[in-house]
């Protein structure tokens, strides 16, 4: 029996399990919290509508990530001008050490600021390859470009990000 029809159980465990990860993934591409919220909702709606396409439970997270990435990239393509808004870190950090909490917040803020320096395609390529772990040919397919272009986007993104982090570090 296919996994698809049971994708969203009556208690919404699938959504709650993946909601924050999908939101952050989309946010890192579109760089706007309100748009990321809308696209996250759109992603889960698409997943629900297409649940019959999912045949293997083990691939559900990757399948959902692909839907989210495609939604974010399509959004970036449709909107040549993107406004950036800050994201509130609503995750609960269970750490009593204020120094570690501050260091983590500073690191995330530096990384977030560095990601703003990248073009949307560089950011998408970097996130898909380095964060999501997709192979270059899959990233190329999602971004509708060649593997060489993906490698170029990733190389430029890494140089920009590394330079920024060295300057602020």
A few lines on this structure:
This protein has 169 residues and is an all-alpha fold. The chain is 68% helix and 0% strand.
Description:
With 169 residues, this protein is mainly alpha-helical. It has 2 domains: 1-79, RNA polymerase sigma factor, region 2, helix turn helix motif (Rna Polymerase Sigma Factor, Chain: A), CATH 1.10.1740; 98-169, Arc Repressor Mutant, subunit A (Orthogonal Bundle). The protein is 68% helix and 0% strand. The chain contains 7 helices and no strands. It has helices spanning 13-30, 33-49, 60-78, 98-116, 120-131, 136-143, 147-168. α1 packs across α2 (33-49) and α5 runs antiparallel to α6. The longest helix is centred in the last third of the chain and has 22 residues, at 147-168. The termini are far apart.
Task: List how many beta strands DSSP finds.
Answer: 0
**Can you give the helix content as a percent range?**
55-70%
User: What's the CATH architecture of the largest domain?
Assistant: Orthogonal Bundle
Largest sheet: none
């Amino acid at each position: 029996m296919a996994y698809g029809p049971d994708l969203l159980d009556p208690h919404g465990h699938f959504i709650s399990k993946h909601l924050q990860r999908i939101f952050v993934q989309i946010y890192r591409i579109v760089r706007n919290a309100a748009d990321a919220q809308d696209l996250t909702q759109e992603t889960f709606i698409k997943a629900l509508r297409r649940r019959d396409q999912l045949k293997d439970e083990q691939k559900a997270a990757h399948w959902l990530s692909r839907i989210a990435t495609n939604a974010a990239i399509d959004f970036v393509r449709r909107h040549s001008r993107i406004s950036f808004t800050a994201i509130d870190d609503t995750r609960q950090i269970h750490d009593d050490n204020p120094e570690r909490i501050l260091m983590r917040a500073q690191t995330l803020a530096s990384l977030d600021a560095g990601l703003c320096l990248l073009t949307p395609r560089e950011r998408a390529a970097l996130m898909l390859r380095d964060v999501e772990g997709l192979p270059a040919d899959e990233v190329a397919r999602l971004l509708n470009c060649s593997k060489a272009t993906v490698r170029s986007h990733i190389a430029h993104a890494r140089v920009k990000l590394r330079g920024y982090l060295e300057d602020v570090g």
